[in-house]
TrEMBL record, chain A:
Residue span, Amidase domain: 26-474
Role of this protein: Allows the formation of correctly charged Gln-tRNA(Gln) through the transamidation of misacylated Glu-tRNA(Gln) in organisms which lack glutaminyl-tRNA synthetase. The reaction takes place in the presence of glutamine and ATP through an activated gamma-phospho-Glu-tRNA(Gln).
Assigned protein family: Belongs to the amidase family. GatA subfamily.
Molecular-function GO term, any one: glutaminyl-tRNA synthase (glutamine-hydrolyzing) activity
Keywords for the protein's UniProt record, in alphabetical order: ATP-binding, Ligase, Nucleotide-binding, Protein biosynthesis
Subunit structure: Heterotrimer of A, B and C subunits.
The protein's name in its UniProt record: Glutamyl-tRNA(Gln) amidotransferase subunit A
Active site annotation, chain numbering: 81 (charge relay system), 156 (charge relay system), 180 (acyl-ester intermediate)
Catalyzed reactions per annotation: L-glutamyl-tRNA(Gln) + L-glutamine + ATP + H2O = L-glutaminyl-tRNA(Gln) + L-glutamate + ADP + phosphate + H(+)
EC number: 6.3.5.7
UniProtKB/TrEMBL annotation, chain B:
Functional summary from the UniProt entry: Allows the formation of correctly charged Asn-tRNA(Asn) or Gln-tRNA(Gln) through the transamidation of misacylated Asp-tRNA(Asn) or Glu-tRNA(Gln) in organisms which lack either or both of asparaginyl-tRNA or glutaminyl-tRNA synthetases. The reaction takes place in the presence of glutamine and ATP through an activated phospho-Asp-tRNA(Asn) or phospho-Glu-tRNA(Gln).
Source organism (scientific name): Myceligenerans indicum
EC identifiers of the protein: 6.3.5.-
Pfam families named among the record's database cross-references: GatC
Keyword line: ATP-binding, Ligase, Nucleotide-binding, Protein biosynthesis
Domain of life: Bacteria
PANTHER family, per database record: GLUTAMYL-TRNA(GLN) AMIDOTRANSFERASE SUBUNIT C, MITOCHONDRIAL (PTHR15004)
Similarity remark: Belongs to the GatC family.
Protein name: Aspartyl/glutamyl-tRNA(Asn/Gln) amidotransferase subunit C
Assembly and binders: Heterotrimer of A, B and C subunits.
Reaction catalyzed: L-aspartyl-tRNA(Asn) + L-glutamine + ATP + H2O = L-asparaginyl-tRNA(Asn) + L-glutamate + ADP + phosphate + 2 H(+); L-glutamyl-tRNA(Gln) + L-glutamine + ATP + H2O = L-glutaminyl-tRNA(Gln) + L-glutamate + ADP + phosphate + H(+)
HAMAP family cross-referenced by the UniProt entry: GatC
Gene: gatC
Lineage: Bacteria, Bacillati, Actinomycetota, Actinomycetes, Micrococcales
Amino acid sequence: MTTDITRLSASELAASLADGTVSSVEATQAHLDRIAEVDGDLNAFLHVSAEEALATAADVDARRSAGDELGPLAGVPIAIKDVVVTKGLPTTAGSKILEGWIPPYDATLVERIKAAGLPILGKTNMDEFAMGSSTEHSAYGNTRNPWDLDRIPGGSGGGSAAAVAAFEAPLAIGTDTGGSIRQPGAVTGTVGAKPTYGGVSRYGLIAMASSLDQAGPVTRTVLDAALLHELIGGHDPRDSTSIPEALPRLADAARLGAAGDLKGLRVGVVKELSGEGYQEGVSARFAESLDTLRALGAEVVEVSCPHFTYALDAYYLIMPAEASSNLAKFDGMRFGLRVQPSEGPVTAERVMAATRGTGFGDEVKRRVILGTYALSAGYYDAYYGSAQKVRTLVQRDFAAAFDQADVLVSPTAPTTAFKFGEKLDDPLAMYLNDVATIPANLAGVPGVSVPNGLSDDGLPVGFQILAPAKADDRMYRVGAALEASLEKTWGGPLLAQAPELKTTELTR
Amino acid sequence: MSTISRDEVARVAGLARIDLRPDEVDRLAGELDVIVESIARVSQVATADVPATSHPIPLTNVFRDDVPQQALSQQDVLAAAPEQEDGRFLVPQILGEE
């Protein structure tokens, strides 16, 4: 019985909660049990907040029996990426420098989740400060891919994606600076959506690159992503880059899409995001998905975005520059780790250097030093300034492409999940994972990854749908249409084809 | 071929306030070349006539009414401090002089 609950999508579970078939306490306990059974192998969670989750669940159940008006996802448990601050729950961002830190406040999106009555199951593993594409840069060990425990779950949000893929949680929160929601979605067979920049408040996210970061939903279905996006999104006065407008109707768009009619919709295939460097099975599934969209009535056209070729280079100038500035707050003075220098005078400056030398991992040091170099005297215009010009060019490419098409599509990632260690010593190879996802961050447009089959190696592949800024509803409509059609041919969700995980017997 | 020298890495690490071990300086000296290659490619298209974009969605300054907001309590703010004294953060000597 408990396993049945964990297999439900969030919207299915919400329906069962609403009609009283299942209580939130039962649902929450079922997911906590599942975590206890499988997370020893997966390591998707850095912290499990069982007590708090069950208390929230009991409260929601009581409010429901009292006849209170509840939101559509009330009582549905959720996992939160550890880069999002949670009052009273440890928040490390995957870094030793924040080990044991308990934030004194909630991120806006966490406030909204709490207000809507979603029990928080815990905090999920990630690359340190969200820097990575494999979760191998976490200071707390690798998260494993539920499809193959020898492979990466993507990154930086590998914990959230693995948790959802392994039925440890029906919903999770991710953050996406260059693809950290979408790429883990692709390699774990789950749905990951990056909203329009400014669509979800960044207040309370531990920032990596402020002009690129965006939080969003990690789920198993497109409708669930739209529902969660509606819950966490919308204007927040505490984030000055938050868009002061109402969100488009996202869940309605997903329901419309699932009905399967895409007549009149123009789908643009981005020429520069295909071909060389894309695994054969990835390209094959992509081509089939285009056929599926055509069969639903969409018109598929090819568009060219010539400057996307430079996006990766611009990203790896902008992101470290902003990260080096954002991470300056980890100075060992007010919170987090403090390390005394081993010799010489004990000044604030030397304590800061010793603290950061000890507390930051290799990839964080690399990016902070790279960014400091790019911003240092004499280089600013040539480096950061030039990269910002490429941003303009990428935006112009998007604008021209959206004149010809309503949505743009590509494979989400060039390959399926690779093995641990395969790309760890080659930062450039690691960065190439994000080649198809980065342009959206540079331009601020929304994107979603939807599972679209298995590659020749039996591992999941993702299909990326990009929409114009503030038109997030379009990506949910197209994503839901593709999902519904593919699930008909598969006879169920793609995750039903994932191998069963070994479970540890519960001692509870 | 490394265009960013060991000395340059050590200097930048100093600016970034990160103590590096000698082996880390060696490794980074090789790896930071990636930025030089990136800038070479970006420079091909980042010509003088292209304006820079700082944020994806155009923004102007955002103001709120000048009304006091609820702030964190002193106790909450100090709760995670490595050291504290008399309700304040206790930090090492700020200036390096004797």
